[in-house]
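Posting this for the archive.
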Amino acid sequence: MPAARFIEAFRNSLSARAVRDDSLTPFAEALRLSAGTPANTAADDLDHPLMARLDEALRRAQGDPDLISAVTEMAAAGDWFQVYTGEGINAAMADFMLAKVAVGPKGLLIDKSIRAGIFLLAPNFEYPMHDHGALEIYYVHSGTLDIQNGTDSAPRRMSPGQYSVTPSEVPHALWTGDAPVILLFVWTGEVTAPIWWWVQDEDGVWTKTLAKKL
């Protein structure tokens, strides 16, 4: 099953890196312990303009050949969906972020303790400042982007093979470059907690508003 193969390949990649960076251990362990059961749904193709950029993004992938193969196989099997459809986000932004969940409460494999899968982001896309209760890793599979963890920190550039760990409830945002981006992600901890937008007013004061219930 493509979802199971993706989980195994991603777990192996994170486990190998965790020898040098133990911040990756919770994600590798969560993928190891996930025991999802197949969802009783048929795979559907998503009719969305960004899907036309998927093959291009997959061809640009770099890194572990086994992980590249597993991502390509899972990405081709349908079940993509649009993450936001207007929940307090600029409509032009919402239309350029798609996802496919390998394992999770509503994944191809059902498991209420974890979320893991793929994001496909359009070029020149901004994912605004937001937070959630889950501990999260972004792993860049294809393309480049800038990520900011914390409202007062500077963004940093990430390329294929690099990753960013965001603690629970830490606000973060990202911006893609001129090519589509594939991000791999894992959530652990409070995986059903809602997502919140962080909005800064003209005086520089940040406030939180509900973005999406999960």
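The two ends are 25 Å apart (CA to CA). The chain has a mean pLDDT of 91.
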